[in-house]
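User: two proteins, same treatment. go.

Assistant:
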Amino acid sequence: MPDDQGPQRRGPTIYDVARECGVAPSTVSRAFSRPGRVNAETAARIRAVAESMGYRANPLARALPTGRTALLALVVSDVTNPFFFEIIRGAEQAATAAGYTVLVSDVQESAQAERQALDRVLPLVEGVVLATSRMSDSTIRVMAKQRPTVMLNRVLTEVPSVVTDNSRGMRRAVEHLGELGHHTVAYAAGPEASWADGMRWRSMREAGYELELKVRRLGRFEPTVRGGLDAAQALAEAPATAVVCYNDLVAIGLMRGLASMGARVPAEVSVVGFDNIFGSDFCSPPLTTVAAPLRALGSHAVRALLRELGHTTPHAVRATVLPAQLVVRGSTATPGRRRHAWTQPGAAAPAQASGSASASTATAFPSASASASASSSSPAPARAAPVRHG
């Protein structure tokens, strides 16, 4: 039975180039891998013939004797999360400057997918950067024995790491809310396997105790806009005047969920995110957030990995901590008076003043007429001007 797809195309091989040039295949190999050991005129002729034939040397085959592929793996938990955009850019810039190429693997928040991806890429790369890994500590340690490894956004003994100063960032967020007059602050928690989530919640409890504020945790939510919508449901059942979210996506989803229930941000609820991702200043109101130096995280992680590649003897392992700063925008303000009970989308909404915004609106900002109605029923909250706190 004939093959409908016809014969498969075969690219030119090292033997084809050698035959065309009238030299041994080993000479062609040396012309690409060790050009200094081949006559300059012969090497130039071999490269010219190879280019005309479309031949490309196999980098993996050339790397077999030395183990040097000039490839690094960057494993991210969710490539669609804007948190990783600048991290990837910073990692690629640092790798390119050192003569390396970065392979990015998206594991979609799955520890199992992360292990499977690493099983495939470890034979191909010289080192690995694990960005917000969801794998267990023991699994990471085993993997780190196979290839030099750097952790991003997580600290693990015996493995180099680069992290943001979560404690300082959370402290600044809680201080900001306390200064505005909030007395009860909720934390919309992230994934259970997230090291950063645990650090942020612990730092929030410590800051609340020192500043004499009541703090409590709301469930565990996916680190997505959908997770933020779920957090809004949880907040409606146990209201607080301010919420710090695991990340900016959760914060944006929370604001959307609150708006759909008729709650006003920041007049009734102040919202703070984490990371200062691309788009955090596009939402309405613009999001107050703890900014992480995302591009620097990526570049520092790759440079740390390159240093590991240069070590041939045991050495001290340490964590590199990069500073965080609070960026104050329009989603935080002094606590205002709640106008009415929040209503779930689809439920009977309370009567509103003529011209006010619908309680089921999908945006995170009331219309101008709704704002006017709100100002007539309660004093407008004082919004802090945009400012960065180190």
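Protein 2:
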Amino acid sequence: MKRLKSLTIVSIMFIMIGLISTTNAKVFSEKSFESGDKIESSVEDSFLKNIKFFDSLEYSQRSIFIDGNTEVLYKEFSNRSVALEELKKDNIDFISYLTQTFGVEELSNSNWKRYYEIIISEDIDEKYDMEILLFRKFFDIYENTDKNNEINKMVDELDSSELSSVDTKESIINELVVLFPNYTKFANKIKNVRGVELKEDFSNIFIKQDFKEIRSSDTNIVNLSDAVNYAQRFAYNPNEGPFYYFHNGDCANFVSQIMQSSGRPTTAGWWHRITKDWLGNYVHEHAPAWSMVNTFVHYFGVSNSTKSNREFSAILSAGSIIAFDSSDDGDWDHVAFVTESDNYIGTYSGYTYFDYKVAQHTRNYHAWTSSSENNWEKIGSNGGRYALVRR
């Protein structure tokens, strides 16, 4: 078992300890934290290298006219080759570790996707946590040139006089809605996929009961106990056989399984089935919204989003479906499921928030955010965005 990050419970909690429920006290005990550990003087300092690196690069943004509006597309590097060389120059040791450990060739434009797969799916030495965040954010922006090119191509097709079929046009529009950045009007024409920005003042809130009125009670989860049991059982060991396992990106597939296990029925746009091919072999088929993270979030929508983990953690509870965007560039990169959430606030290795336990795939784990196995608390500090998928 990996080590746990240090915890300091804010002093006011000792005054208000009587307000903490028996259940929460049991959770505190199970996590085996010691109160009073030294808090890091400045969490922000650990992100200084990453911040300086991204500030040193040059960016550009295209715009496109669609549906009566001029929309700004994804931020991209002005010169991808130059950006990639800068990444390699600043991270020689980490790249050497990756090539030796995972047998990949030197990082290049032809194999960057393989590096991205390793970053999001493989068990990497935790001493490289900051490099993982940096590379994940870098590739999240690096891929945007390809996404913008695809959007331009599809919009040109949509505007083409040769495109006469109404069904074909509708199909392209539906694909474009998911492709467009979630901050654009076009992406939100069907559902809110950016969510309402959290603007409450959480600085003086230390227990969730103080603001329970802002937390929604309705949920995508029908039977919470069944959902949590499924998440706990298959977080580390995927339920292969009944379901396909995507080794390089299984997060949405896993959350969909959790939702279905709770009793939520599939729909015409969100489903999984097993069929047979012409040789009689069993084949798994999925709707894009079942297994593709950004499409999943688009299908269900977003209720709230924020760049602050403290604010984000304050609205979570068991059964929450959560997502993040590594670089806040406009598409959701990862989704997971919350099995437990603390009602008291704590400070863990310099980060202050309400701790929450995450079950997820890619990487596969079921762990408190305060544990070294889980790095959700760092996403916002690295320039990312959190989302609570619509409940």
